[in-house]
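Handout, page 2. Input:
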Amino acid sequence: MHPQLASDLARLSPLLELTRQRAAAFLDTLPDRPVVPPAPAPGPVPLPEHGAGLQAALEEFGARWEPALSAGAGPRYLGFVTGGATPAALAGDWLTAAADQNSNSSLDGAGQHLERETVDWLRELFGLSGRHRGTFVSGATMSNTVGLAIAREWLGERLGVSVAEDGAAALGRVRVLSGSAHSSVAKALSVLGLGRSALVAVPTLPGREAVDPAALAEALRAADGPCVVVANAGTVNTADFDDLRAIAALRERHDFWLHVDGAFGAFAALSPDHAHLVDGLDLADSVCIDLHKWLNVPYDSAVQFTRRQDLQSTVFRNAAAYLGPLGDDPDLVHLTPENSHRLRALAAWFTLRAYGRDGHREIVERCVAGAQALGRAIEDTEGLRLLAPVRLNVVCFGMDGDPSADRLARLAQELAGEVFFTPTVHAGVPALRAAFSNWRTTAEDVQRIVSALRGAARRY
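Output:
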């Protein structure tokens, strides 16, 4: 064994304690450290020929890289839709790395059985029936890709061909209809060989990002054959929701696969006051839900559900003598693009076991309350303008007068040490977007954000 490896192995316990101390110190400073540090990233250095061991690496990381990291896990990082890691999820993730399991095969321990138990808990959490089967993937983009890959095979089934065997060209032209599809949907269509041009934008309701069911019915009539509908349970800019039951009812007259992108909006199911937004989610043929958003587990973690796991295994089966057979309950290696993945279900298992449904309901409802409070404050602040109702956890706002992207960028830059917003464009107007999804965010954080925002708005 290399002498430095042997030395680190001999001192592993105290070295891990040093690592724990550094991690704890980082987490302790999250509430007050700059949300986006002003310091630039350090410049590159050459690969070391001779390593100095774990302790030296820890010290260099602390000196060069840690000061430049964002407080993305902290309470005032409202960019994108970014959760943190609950204490239990963090513990689960640490143990995931320690156990270092590849949970894709039944030949290797209980990893995939733990994943199945966790998927069952998540299915219950989101109100899905037993007809839905699920697997863990790396994020919403991969969840959408897997769901649309199954939809692609379903289209082949309808047309009497197997895309898995004959390729996407066997389908001819494909239509994927959606009102306000997330950018990852177009990316998935590119990856799957269906092409970005397969995505057809359907008119939305006036002043909304939700699809107009009547316009969707007309688009389905025009499609003249089986197609795919991507519905939204929470759009990026305004957290708007398609009427899932109304869309599913169109299957009585039209032949289509219904995929629901509920990356963060599916968590509305946890709140009695907002569960109506995802009424009909169980009617979907496939569902995307991102767990490193509102479940507050570390990156990268998401889940995908489908009613047609038979088609899923047709797409992703991996034939090799050292792998288990497909069967009625296929190993996870046959269900996603990955031939191997870490036991990412463990972090979700820990947080669900530690806090249960009621703990995660409280996180959702507190985040919604924070978004509503910020929305009210923006309406009451001179110079700022709320661009859409606060339906769930997203606040989309701009500026009065000259609402230019440059002006908003300067405002966001001044606020970056205190709060981070994502720049966007809504209905053709440059905007900023605040997404509440972190378990640490409190009413006090919201007041701190409001104070900083009002002060900056007066200067711009």
